[in-house]
Please model this.
Amino acid sequence: MKKLTPKWLQNKIYWSLLFSLVVTSCSSDNIPIGPTSLNSRFTEEQPALSGNGRFLAFISNRNGAHQLLVYDLQQQEFFRIPRLTRPDTIIESPSLSYTGRYVAYITSDQGRPVIGLYDRAAQQSQILTPIYRGWVRNPNISPDGRYVVFETSARGQWDIEVLDRGPNIELDIPNGAPINPP
Model:
């Protein structure tokens, strides 16, 4: 007994095979993948470049975790950032100072978004807005690392605020650059 495949099913099989061949041939096999590669097969988003153009910070889903990564474009390798992430927290919206010493970002503290700041030289992270009223988003750090500007909903609408970290912080400036007081 001979089985016949209906014509409509043959057309679907033909187009499925053709589509899969086209998709396979258009895939990007030439993207360098590896532990020191900038590109990966995972979602990477929200890029931020340091003022000197050397460091790139972005959010990635590599290694099965939502994380903030810092990539040295000159050395073409990832820069270690120990003690930045805490379990069960999300990090978003990175911003880098001039040499990438300071990284400002949004994280969560007891379910509310707060602005965090990571100092790569000291390898320490701190929350800049621990008792802040309202929601915060989109932080951006000044090139010298003294000021952090962000959006806030403290007045019931989105406004801009500037947080001054104070005159006694160690500024992120290139070696040999003159320091002009504000």
About this structure: The first strand starts at residue 44 and ends at 49. Helices lie at 7-26. The chain is about 10% helix and 35% strand. The longest helix spans residues 7-26.
